[in-house]
């Protein structure tokens, strides 16, 4: 695990970490679309299969500065941008194409280096420290008698 300026990278991301990055990427795309529509004063309709992103935007209990900035952009573009949820993986050609390009972008695109939420960093640090402690405990020679009597 590498932690730098509140940005966390994990060598082998868990399924939950991949979901977090995927949802964050979808919020980035929604934010980009809102900014694009505002710059050009063009009405657009955005389709997203990310229920969690749409729910985060609709929520009144948002703590994430990034989600708040997305909400601000959408509010500023309220007459220009409409957002519609579509069901994922049901053969919708537009959504399948978007998923295809998202997969390509996530494997060879630029690192977004967005700050991770506190809860995510806390959990990642706890997992890392527990793994380090367990490795240290198993390889330790100083507590060998205690290990044999108590834990085996």
Automatic annotation (TrEMBL):
<dbReference type="Pfam" id="PF00075">
    <property type="entry name" value="RNase_H"/>
</dbReference>
<dbReference type="InterPro" id="IPR036397">
    <property type="entry name" value="RNaseH_sf"/>
</dbReference>
<dbReference type="InterPro" id="IPR002156">
    <property type="entry name" value="RNaseH_domain"/>
</dbReference>
<feature type="domain" description="RNase H type-1">
    <location>
        <begin position="47"/>
        <end position="105"/>
    </location>
</feature>
<dbReference type="GO" id="GO:0003676">
    <property type="term" value="F:nucleic acid binding"/>
</dbReference>
<dbReference type="InterPro" id="IPR012337">
    <property type="entry name" value="RNaseH-like_sf"/>
</dbReference>
<dbReference type="GO" id="GO:0004523">
    <property type="term" value="F:RNA-DNA hybrid ribonuclease activity"/>
</dbReference>
<protein>
    <recommendedName>
        <fullName>RNase H type-1 domain-containing protein</fullName>
    </recommendedName>
</protein>
